[in-house]
Model the fold of this input.
Amino acid sequence: WEVPCTLNHPRISSVVPAMALGKRFAMLLRPRARHLGSASQRIAKVAVWQGSAEPGNPTANLGKVAQVTADAKASGAELVLFPELFVSGYDCKGQQLHDAALPQAALREKVGLLSQQTSMCIALPYTELVQNDGSRHLYNSCALFDSSGELVLNYRKVNLWGPWEQKSFFRGGPDQMICADLQFASGLSVRCGALICFDIEFPEPARCLSLQGAELLLVPTALGSGDVDHLTPMQVVPTRALENHVFIMYSNLEGSASSSEEQNVPSFCGRSAIISPDGLELARAEKDGGGVLLTAALELDGFAASVSRNPYLYERFQRIESGYYQVLKETCLLPGVDRELRCMESSTDAQVAEKSSLDSQVTEKERLKHHVEGLDYKEFQYGSEHPSQFLRLYLPSPEHQWLGYDSQTGNAVGYPVLFLIHGGFWKSKWSIENTQSLSLVPDFLERGFAVALVEYRRREMPGGKWPGPELDVTKALEYLQVLSTTEAIDASRVVVLGHSAGGQLALAASNASMLKPCLCVSIASVPDMLPGFEAQLSDEGDAIQQYMGFCPDSEEEKQKYTEASLSSKLPLQCPTLLVSGTEDVDVPPRLLKEFHEKCFGHSGSPVELLEVYGADHYHLVTAGDRRWQEVVRKMTQMLQEICKWQLPPHAEDYGVTERSGFLPSPDPMANCSVDLPPSSDASLFASWEKCVEELPSHLCAGNVRERILSLTVPVVGLEGCLESWQVLLLSDEARAERVFLLLSWMGHAWVWGEETVSHELPSCIAIPWAEVARILGRPPILTYYSFNASNWRRLDPKGEVALGNLCRLNNFLGGQDEEWFSVVHVAIEAAAGKALAAAVRAQQVVVAGHGNHNFQEDLAEALNSLARGIDGMLELLKRMKERCDPYIYYMRVRVFMKGWTADELPDGMTYGGVPGEETRWRQEKFFGETGAQSSVIPALDAAMGLAMSEDELSPYLQAMRSYMPPKHADFIRRLETGPGVRKAILEEVSKQSESPASDRETESRRELVASYNRCVQGLTNFRAVHFELAFTFVRKWDKRKDDEIKGTGGTPFMPYLKKHRESTRSLLIDFPDNSKMEK
Done:
């Protein structure tokens, strides 16, 4: 007998020797064969716990684990298994579930110690928390500890059951189907695999583990007590044991689920069991035993005869090899799958629909309620026809009340109002309590707004069909005028914002109301009824028909649809922002785009369309989400530029933090091919990571282009049909930044890394680089942000972002000089955080004006903080020469920073494979990496009102903003058009000159001017040191004239830097010299 090389599955090699296949075959496979037929029998004593857990109380449940483990040990068992999600409790929902989640390390600390102390193996299911780049991912997991306390397996559930699990948890990836050798205290080693609940109901997961040699499957579950649920523990589980020749430990919860009546969660059906490889029960619990511990002794080597009689794994292997199961390899939709899908679609049983409806409402309410917990509000009834005609009014807390005053007079004028309208296809089950827009309430309170959260009649209620909801919302909007007489709100500063159905109502009310809002924001809405009807919106496809109350079958009915459409009411009566997400499957973005096109040609208020790339229906109203931040940045722009509001920017919207300024927070991603969501293809990102890791070696060897050409060209999908890697980067900004860095590194290594300069990028770089640049909103070239701001890590992750604790993630050639040059810039960026926070604070003080009785003192304090921040940046810049040699910088580091405007590239760069407008392939002349692309100094200039004079330098500096992350460039623009700090100080100086002031007033004003001048002088000093470094590091080594030498940014930098320094110094403010000041 010759051993086929394809017989390499551990379980097959275990099964085959048990058959009479010949002596030579058996001898070759004997190491695996002994598990099924050795003379010395291996006995594993195990226990399964069936009981209940306390929802949301990990401490109590872990205490129960300790007690049960002790009982199991006393019974002689060496392994104990608990039910699904036992640590958090399965019926733990919403925020309670997040609060009860544990990181793997925390569970290891708690349970690993218990395993070690008791010498017990413990299989414990829990809600696993994984924090990645600021996001919180939950997994339904099972941790397996051996008798020494080591975590040998952490399985994440792959087959999530039902809407609640699928919404609450991330799915485990393909790498979860693995086994572990579990060491018992007695010295016994058992090969184990883990599955969770729904996993065991599919044949494939158990088969995957058995083929890897699993002898024992651990299956925690939380199986409910339905009509057919008993079939799983009584029939399915024994079948899995038999067909895979494995022992199965099956642990279920029992009793009633906590809050089951409220959350519609059924009782659990118990029936935990321990099953042998011949499908027979070794132990079985009843439905409800009041907490029961099942025990059994597993004769691991006692089933050779049974296996030999029915060698399922080996026979399966033979049939696959012979082509009998070819259909299993098919990738198309097979008839059996199609039939199952039709059954799912036709399952419209009223009870199922009602249960789904109740589950969705309660789950959403639980998930969202934490946004407004603890916030005070007043409730007002604006109509008398129905109880749903009310609004809730929230006011900002004292520390966020800067928008409530007239900056000139100091009089209280009330807070601007966000008039917030929820969506939900006008269905009564969706309300202000359980719709995503609720998350925007605290978000706007922190911006200094009051929030009016509006409820209205919905379509199942009397008067809830069209035009009832429109009339309700219009009446509520006009009611703000009444409220402004008794409440601290300003009815002249109202922003109406609606989402989905609420977006349609926002447009209708803003157009019809006597109170005209300053801005209407309509997000993911349906402005016109006939196109909406044709789009078959909502799960049932009849949202518009149900809202209108009839189908548009007759001309008369079509006319009513037209009357209900906003197109018939053009032009719009107030400035309007229409927002759609390119990946919205609930409301097609074309509906708003078509409406926006209809608005052209009407001489009304401005109407702008914002299409958010990669956003779905709910991203656009999820506070904190980067796609929502894109929306609110646009709102801020329109309020400043169109409505002329004095509005300080909200730093968090622009990715700016006091701790680290414009640097990414959390820290930059170090590897984009790890911690990927389920079903993502890591190989593409891994190939780029590997290439960049090897770049220094290939640059030294002179064959970097050969290495880059070995990369594959990824497929790029179009909008609405994006590839998985594009979708991933759209939803994960940190990963997109990392990918952009990798492609930038490879692109510049390709161009500058060999003796001859390349004028064309290969498609393997150019195509993905252009797409990721589009996602991030920057040109496809190495920018300052990639070279420095997203290319670092902390040596001590708990330490500060500061020199001495920083290193780069990637270098071109490497060495101290390249490393130091970059980390000095990173340290300066981090130090700028305090200055930027002080700049925003200064604008907040200015907009409140003399309504703040400590106006001069508070503004001086903010400016002094800003000056200290600038001084800290300057001290770091002075350290540049400590470990970066100017000559090495000029010859080795600077070369890779050059762009496509360099002298060596007179025609710019060609992006191979990327279609151009006038040429076959795209050609560009992008500027190279330069400090002018840092957002820090331009932002401080903007906040201080230090505008550059209109000369040849201004267009270049403006152009540099397109190389910054768009949100950072927008932050600069918002500071420029926000409350004028310089203007406010000049007004104080003017008052001092025009009329006598008290000694105290004079001293306050003098200190205010001195604080401002400290900032201006600090920026002047910073530019002076920058000028000196530019001479030492670049100008000194070039023999040409100043105006002939280009920096990496493509400009004659020496004259520009000198002029910029002098123009900054000229903006110092003189304080009036009078007798009181002299005294």
